[in-house]
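P.,

For your records, the input lines for the assembly:
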Amino acid sequence: MTTATATPAAAARALFPDAATIIDAPESRFPLKLGVENRRIRELFHTATRMQWNPATDIDWDQLHPEQYTDEQRRAARMYWSRRAWGEYGAISESPALQIRFCHERCPPDMALFFSIRSQEESRHAEVCYRMAEALGGYFDQPAAVAFQGSVASHGIRKVALDPAISLEGTIAALVCAAEEIAFDVFRHLTEITVNPVARQVVKAILRDEVRHCAFGWAFLDQRMPQMSAQEKDVVRQAVINMIEKVELNGYHSSWLAPANPSSTAEMEVDEITHQAGLGATTEALEKPVFLQSIAAMRERMRDNWGIEIPMFRHPKIEGPF
Ligand SMILES: [Fe+2]
Ligand SMILES: [Fe+2]
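Structure tokens returned:
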């Protein structure tokens, strides 16, 4: 970082103008500063190291009782938990890509330290969801319908994280303060409505990690935004809008938001059956108010903390702008 107003991305571009991705740029590590530069993130790192858990032993798997459910319920729940595992797996590859970016841009060292644990946490989430599907009768390694892969496959963060032309601040704001924050609110809602004790334990365990993932994003942006120009802040704003419109409202986290087609209808059915069985998942009717509240809270916080205005959105499944 050179001046208070130049973003790390701009500095990186000035250093390596021809680099297509940061992998192509020569590595330069020194001087290596390891002191605390973002206290909130350093504290998250220390908390995370204290809060490790083991999906194999810290969940009371014998309380699941899969035999108490019908074949249809078990099959739906297997699909639901497999889908959760695919999403968490996406985070496993995005997380180290961001970590490479933090090192490349000489971000506060607290960020890379925290993300080393964040990657582990996403791995645990993938494993615990996989174990849940297995315990219910078997994990599915791909969606039933190819059409749905477009919605669940990726939000493209891994590629974006390695592209020096794309603002890191925008990426973190979109990925963490928008997408992960919505996922967190839905997870909290799941801890309230999930009946099966094992399914509930699993969502609670994931939620305890996700609270730190969200806090990281705000701690980073709350420090960076006051140092940024109006133009740079607008890049952040646009990245958030894109994440909501192109990813969230396309059904990345919630199948009822995906474009209506036979595969998204089938996924909604999976959610409905899993939810009715008490094995996880929520429904359009229950999730909608949570989703809307999450968007409203995010908009308010970005306005208060960062001084940016996120516009109202529209979606065919939601009445009026929100
Ligand atoms: Fe996760
Ligand atoms: Fe996460």
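Two observations worth noting. Residues 9-14+37-305 form a domain with the Ribonucleotide Reductase, subunit A fold (CATH 1.10.620.20). The chain has a mean pLDDT of 91.

Regards
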